[in-house]
Amino acid sequence: MTATKKLHIKTYGCQMNVYDSERMVEAMAAEGYETTEDAGEADLILLNTCHIREKAAEKVYSDLGRLRPLKDAKPDLRIGVAGCVAQAEGGEIMARQPLVDLVVGPQTYHRLPAMLARVAAGEKALDTEMPEEDKFDHLPQLRTPAAKPSAFLTVQEGCDKFCAFCVVPYTRGAEVSRPVTRLLSEARALVDRGVREITLLGQNVNAYHGAGPDGRTWSLADLIWALDGIEGLARIRFTTSHPNDMTDDLISAHGDCAKLMPYLHLPVQSGSDRILKAMNRKHGAAEYIKLIDKLRAARPDLALSGDFIVGFPGETEADFEATLDLVRQVRYAAAYSFRYSPRPGTPAAERPEVPTEVAVERLHRLQALLTEQQQAAQAAMIGRETNVLFEKAGRLPGQLVGKSDYLQAVHADAPESMLGRVARVRVTVAKTNSLAAELV
C-alpha cells in the first residue's frame, strides 16, 4: 500500500482564507494527503497568503526563508504559495525564492493536483489566472465530520468598489456570486457534518446577487431566508459588508429572521466626508449614521463592529475629530482600527502620507475610545441571558467555551455533552475580550 502523504498548510489573514484552506485540504485529501501540524514531517507545504496587512509579501518571503532547512533535508518536499500574495507577486515569488515549486492564485486552487503533477515531472507550476470557470465546481464535496460546530461558507468573491486603499479588486477580481442551489447544497452538507452555525463570506458579501432556482437573481436576504429553512442549522452570520449594499430587505431580515444573529460588521473607515470621498467610498458619514438608525430600529439589540483607517493621505486633525464624533454616535461593541499603510498599485499609494508620529498618536486616541465602548458593551451583558453555541473545552476542567449571539467569547461550567449545542446562559462576569456565564 502507498504511504499517506502529509500536507502542512499555514493560513494568513481573513476568514475567506480559512475557508479556502479548508477547501484545499479537501482537494488534497482526494489525492491521498492528510494534514499535519508539523511542517517537518510534511511532503507538501502550502502558505495561503493575505495581502491586506502591511508588508504582507515580506512576511511570506521571511517564512519561506525559514523553510529552507526543511527543503535541504528533504529534496522531494514540495512548497507552494497560494492566496492573494501569490496573485499579486506571481512569478516574482519563484524568482526570489527558488525553493518554491508552485504558485497558485485564489481563483485557481482547484487546479492544485494538476500543478503538483507538473512539479513531479520536474517543472515549476504557476497559475494566477482568473478563469471564467467556477473553482467550486471542481472541488470535492464536503464529507468528513466538521472540526467545529461553526463553519464558513464563501458565497461571493471579489469587489467592484475600488476603494483607493484596497488591493482586493486586483487580487480577487470582480464581484462574482455563487449560484443559490450550490450554496444550499453545501450548507446542507455542512449541517450533515455537525455544523450548527454558518458564516456567509464575501469580500463584499451583501452585494451577493446569485442565480436562483426560480430563474431570478437572489439577494443576500433571499439566500438567508432559504438557509433559515434548513433543519438543524441554528445560526446564520455574514461578513464583510459595504454600507452601500445594505438593502432594505437585508435590514428587515435582521429584525425578522430568528436564525440571523444580532451582530453586524459594517466598515466605515472614516467619519470625514472629505476623506471618505478621497477613499472612493461613495457614501458619507450622515448616510452611514442613517443606515445604523434603520438597522437598530429593525433590531434594537444589534451589536455593531466596524473598521477604521487612521492617517489616510490628506487626513487633517478636523477629519480625525469627525471620525471620533461618528464613533461616539454609533457606539461600537467591537472594532478594528489601523494606521494607514500604502498598498502598491492602489491609487492612495501615490499620495503624500501623514507623518507617522501624527498617525500613531491619532490611532492611540481612537483605540482608547473604541476600547471604552467595547468594555461598556461587555459590562452591559452582566446579569443578562443570551444563547451560546459551545465549540470546545475551556482551560479549566468542566468548562466549555463558545460564542454568544453577539459573537462574544463566553465560558461556562457545562458537561461535555453540550459541545455542538446551543444553550441558554446568564452572564456573571465581563472582561474586555470574554464573558463568564452560568447555565440557565
Q: What's this, in brief?
A:
The protein folds into 3 domains: 5-127, Methylthiotransferase, N-terminal domain (Rossmann fold); 136-366, pyruvate-formate lyase- activating enzyme; 385-439, OB fold (Dihydrolipoamide Acetyltransferase, E2P), CATH 2.40.50.140. It contains 14 helices and 21 strands.
How does this structure look, described?
There is one protein chain. The chain has 440 residues and is α/β, with parallel strands linked by helices. The chain folds into three domains: 5-127, Methylthiotransferase, N-terminal domain (Rossmann fold), CATH 3.40.50.12160; 136-366, pyruvate-formate lyase- activating enzyme (Alpha-Beta Horseshoe); 385-439, Beta Barrel (OB fold (Dihydrolipoamide Acetyltransferase, E2P)), CATH 2.40.50. The protein is 33% helix and 23% strand. It has 14 helices and 21 strands. It has helices spanning 15-29, 56-66, 68-73, 84-89, 92-96, 112-120, 168-171, 180-192, 220-228, 248-256, 273-278, 285-298, 317-330, 356-379, and strands at residues 5-11, 33-35, 44-49, 78-83, 102-104, 125-127, 150-154, 156-157, 176-177, 197-201, 210-211, 217-218, 235-239, 263-265, 303-310, 334-339, 385-393, 399-404, 409-413, 422-430, 435-439. A six-stranded parallel beta sheet has the order 2-1-3-4-5-6, sandwiched between helices. A hairpin with a 5-residue loop joins strand 11 and strand 12. Helix 10 (248-256) runs parallel beside helix 12. The chain is globular, with a radius of gyration of 23 Å.
